[in-house]
UniProtKB/TrEMBL annotation:
Record carries keyword Nucleotide-binding: no
InterPro entries per UniProt: Glyco_hydro_beta-prop_sf, Mannoside_phosphorylase
Protein name: Glycosidase
Gene Ontology molecular-function annotations: glycosyltransferase activity; hydrolase activity, acting on glycosyl bonds
UniProt entry tagged with the keyword Transferase: yes
Top-level taxonomic group: Bacteria
Length: 371
């Protein structure tokens, strides 16, 4: 029996080597080091692509709340009068009196490659020289939640770019799994959970997507589904130009532990029974809900055909014992596990998640669990 453990925590980040030192001289801290992409390198070691959310220790100064923003020259601080915002959540503030909801982030996220041993038991190296910072306007307020897939002979990494103009999906490619080259925006609508399949379907790239909106159409009253954000699919000839699939996907189901909303988790991997995908589902517990990890199987030749959905019992749940030593750094009260990476390890999968929006967790799931 394998045991889950935290492999990377906020206090393991050396902020003296942060890309934000280019322009930000004020004290900062790591709000979270979490939601890591996961891949296996050519030599056998694993690589976590950790999201580092770096925040100002004093976000409010001189009657203004401040947000960190990338510019081509350096990082700068934007100022919003304190009486023009509300600050009810430690992750963001909301601008008052706007027809559309506007939020500002209290941290800016960048990506830190962390190399692990083949069994994900120890950290081998932290590659600050390959850290990925915002590099274009569409990432001016940060880069979030990388997912890494090996497709077409290359490592394909999708992350979420955050800016005032768009909330988009951005692709980067690598020939070694460590150094990534930006390929630009691939989805231009608000989409936080794009993940490429670990391999092609026929001659096409496939990806999970989850477009978001301010409102959703209610399903029929007798439907099994609850409505709201759902997991969709898209296909592409080159991973750059995407067409949404006409059918298919995973939806929040009434009466399940994922009745509030669902979203993508790991890049789907091919098994003898079809494409295995781990995804997150949220219930109605508390203000933001409890986040859990569930799983589904998609047809190997037509991934829009959903063969099986397991959303009654969670595959992975938050474990407060793992973060007990970090109690003084906890900033969210809801139980949260957000799974973002998977790697094959013979008779089991090594799964990487963000625990409590705070640290990186490794789980070991026997393949027999998906029988």
């Amino acid at each position: 029996m394998f045991d889950d453990h935290l492999i990377f925590t906020p206090d393991m980040v050396d902020l003296s080597r942060s890309p934000l030192r280019n322009g930000i001289a004020e004290p900062t801290f790591v709000l979270g080091a979490f939601n890591p992409g996961l891949t296996r390198l050519g030599g056998g070691n694993l690589l976590l692509m950790v999201r580092v959310a770096e925040a100002l220790r004093d976000p409010v100064k001189d009657d203004a709340v401040r947000a960190i923003r990338w510019t081509p020259e350096r990082f700068v601080l934007d100022r919003y009068p304190i009486d023009s915002v509300t600050m009810d959540d430690p992750r963001f503030f909301s601008v008052k009196d706007r027809a559309s909801r506007l939020i500002g982030l209290t941290s800016l996220s960048w990506l830190l490659p962390v190399e692990l041993s083949p069994d994900a038991r120890e950290v081998v190296a932290v590659h600050y020289d390959h850290a990925i910072a915002p590099s274009a306007e569409y990432e001016q307020y940060g880069i979030e939640d990388a997912r890494i897939s090996i497709v077409g002979g290359a490592w394909q990494m999708v992350s979420c770019g955050v800016s005032a103009n768009r909330h988009c999906s951005v692709l980067r490619r690598s020939v070694d799994g460590l150094e990534y080259r930006p390929m630009g925006v691939v989805l231009d609508h608000q989409n936080k959970d794009m993940a490429l399949f670990h391999g092609k379907v026929g001659d096409r790239f496939f990806a999970l997507t989850r477009p978001l909106g301010e409102s959703y159409i209610a399903p029929p009253p007798d439907s099994d589904f609850a409505g709201g954000p759902s997991i969709n699919l898209a296909e592409s000839p080159d991973a750059l130009h995407w067409k949404p699939c006409d059918t298919g996907g995973i939806r929040a189901r009434k009466g399940s532990k994922a009745a509030r909303k669902v979203g993508g988790g790991t890049p789907p991997v091919l098994t003898p029974k079809g494409w295995l995908m781990l995804y997150h589902g949220v219930d109605h517990e508390g203000p933001i809900g409890a986040y859990r990890t569930f799983w589904a199987l998609l047809d190997r030749d037509d991934p829009t055909r959903v063969l099986r959905v397991e959303d009654d019992d969670a595959l992975i749940e938050a474990d407060p014992s793992l973060t007990a030593a970090l109690a003084d750094r906890m900033y969210l009260s809801s139980p949260i596990i957000f799974t973002t990476g998977i790697a094959d390890a013979d008779d089991h999968y090594i799964v990487a998640s963000g625990e409590a929006d705070l640290a990186c967790r490794i789980s070991y799931i026997p393949k027999t669990r998906f029988a």
